[in-house]
Amino acid sequence: MQRRTPLMPVLSRGAASTHAVGRPFPRCYTYCGRCHNESGACRLFSPNTNVSVVFFSTATTGKTKATNTMTASDCRGEAELLRVLQGLGFELPTISHEEKHTVEEANKELGRFGVPCIGTKNLFLKSSKGELVLVTALHNTKTNMKSVQNALKTKDLRFATAELLHEKLGVVQGSVTPFALVNNSAKDVMVVLDKALVESNLPIVLHPCRNDKSSLITPVQLEGFLKCINFSYTVVDFSDSTPAAPPSAEAKEVKPAPAPRTSDNKGDVKGETKLGIRASRSENFSHWYVEAITKAEMIEYYDVSGCYIMRPWAYFIWKSVQKFLGARIDEMGVEDCYFPMFVSKTCLEREKDHIEGFAPEVAWVTKAGESDLEVPVAIRPTSETVMYPYFAKWIRSHRDLPVRLNAWNSVVRWEFSHPMPFIRTREFLWQEGHCAWQTEEECSREVLQVLDNYAAVYTDLLAVPVVKGRKTEKEKFAGGYYTTTVETYIAAVGRGCQGATSHNLGQNFGKIFDISFQDPDKSDGSTLIPWQNSWGMSTRVIGVMIMVHGDDRGVVLPPRVASVQVVIIPVGITKDTQREQRDKLVDGCKMLERKLNSGGVRARTDLRDNYSPGWRFNHWELKGVPIRVEIGPKEMDTKKLSVVLRCNGQRRSISWDEHLIESVTTLLDEIHGIMFQRAEKEAEENRKKVTEWRDFTPALNSKALVLSPWCGVETCEDQVKKDSADESKAQQSKEEREDARAPSMGAKALCIPFDQPEPVNGKKCICKSCDRPAQMWVLFGRSY
């Protein structure tokens, strides 16, 4: 038995769907509620848990409704639950669905949340002394009564009756979760949480007092909820327990059906360290990604949905981007500045197309303390409307041009369906440049110069290849003239990801915000409107880097952004090692660390003697440190260092001599090259040129980006997306259609590559319903 330990993830609101009419419970069902099936077999327990299932008759007379005909509408507490959650500031993603009566049925809805999550099972029990117990565990945990009884110092636990369930928790079979405790005013229910659930890096799914809805909540939020309603709880480690005997001879025993095998069970291998990544990158990418960034200590989930804590291991990467890109921005002659995060409604709404593009994402401040603001103010989703009223104030003459400003700040974009740390969040860090020029030529030249700098961040700093191009009219920045982009490719899922954009805004914003200057070639007072551009790169670069380079062992960091480039670990120390030898080895490690750091190599020595060398190897591999140096007595004597490369596991030997710094820095550059070449090869091999529609969807489903001829008409762009989505779904089996990971998204136009493979003369538009001649090659693909 142990107490709860923080910290766990927080997820943002998901999209709700329409509610369908539920169906009544079957006539016979188990006391555990969510686990029964039509035949009466309990599905919550594996065959090894030895838990009996009790059946009962619930026929009643008079006006009381029979419990075996109760539905979600007979549950109470949803309104009170919402009040408690709102008081805590928890905005839980919630979906509606048909009533779910088994764990398997409920788990089929998990994919609709659009984020990695895991289902639960909930047991309402009663002891021989009348004690009430609510057990909540992950759906694949092998629970048993003996563990619960030992932890609570009780005995003879059995499933409580449906009448008692409704009396004490106010819900019916299939709706039992800790949320129902809002109805237990007597506080006479003991709560048990599965240790695996408490330590989960994923949010869990619970019914909000009725089984026709499901909500996402994280372990840390669940802890806050239980504390708020004055319930303590006990954590039980079911993995260390032995199977218990059946609860009672009075119960009719039913052999449970085997629990379905899932990829989550892969980590339950005896002896496997919990340090490593349980999910496979190739089989369950979204789960792998969450595990990788949390276990590598890059991200911590926050208690405001859609927001995340960037820990030092990740923030150093952003600092490296700032240093690299900031130097190039300075060389361009662009000056740094800062504008307030708030923007008035009047300014925000002056550019119609611009605000329509951002309106669903704008967060508004409506209160100050207990008082309503007379005029609400928005938190910037981007800074065009924040800055340009002041451009109008500062620009009067052609001598005031160019105005070239850059800001490192954060922006808030509140509304989205599928949050993903670094890739899509409600608040994110970025830089945004805003410049005004006298001529279109000057403005356009800078747009491309910035795009080259963004490409360099990816290729020279993060070892990630990109495709430079121009967005289609449909995909360009709202209110802009045209948009250029660097597009990246995530091989594990076959998706593109927009890396950064540089926009030529034309003269549109100048017209809207009355930005003008006197025409230098005329003396009659006539004015001209300047040409403007804006450009931005965000912390999304970190997510792309992780997705491109990571593997099943965790994160793989490019050397130039790793806060620790070399980790030094002493080896060969045993219980028989003399104190003098041990001290000599430790001193040697510290000496090497000092030498590397003084030579500009970021090095750290791991001397934690409470962990084995193997554990420490795994720890730093998971965090992605480029080079591991192992020093033992032999290395101390020979002055030959044994090093292991994180990017490919290759072992090398380096002389510990006057050329050490040069050798290590050369090796770090080599590692960068290895990582870039591998990523570039993957991207090129999965970029397929397709000219016939019959080959388009198969190429897309093979996790490729598709380069195809296009006529330039937006309706064809939309049709390609729709047709590819429809065909993908039609080609899937029933099981694949129910699997949220199966490819079903249509292909969007990622960009019109600057590097066109060949003239499109004589080729037809890729859209199957279009006979127009193609005008250009377009890169299509699924994307984040």
Descriptive notes:
The chain is of the alpha+beta class and 784 residues long. It folds into four domains: 164 residues, YbaK protein; 258 residues, 2-Layer Sandwich (BirA Bifunctional Protein, domain 2), CATH 3.30.930.10; 119 residues, Rossmann fold (3-Layer(aba) Sandwich); 86 residues, Translation Initiation Factor IF3 (2-Layer Sandwich), CATH 3.30.110.30. 29% of the residues lie in helices and 21% in strands. It contains 21 helices and 31 strands. The chain has a five-stranded mixed beta sheet. The longest helix has 26 residues. The chain starts with 77 loop residues before the first helix and ends with a strand. The N terminus is likely disordered. Its EC number is 6.1.1.15. It is an enzyme of class 6 (ligase). It catalyses: tRNA(Pro) + L-proline + ATP = L-prolyl-tRNA(Pro) + AMP + diphosphate.
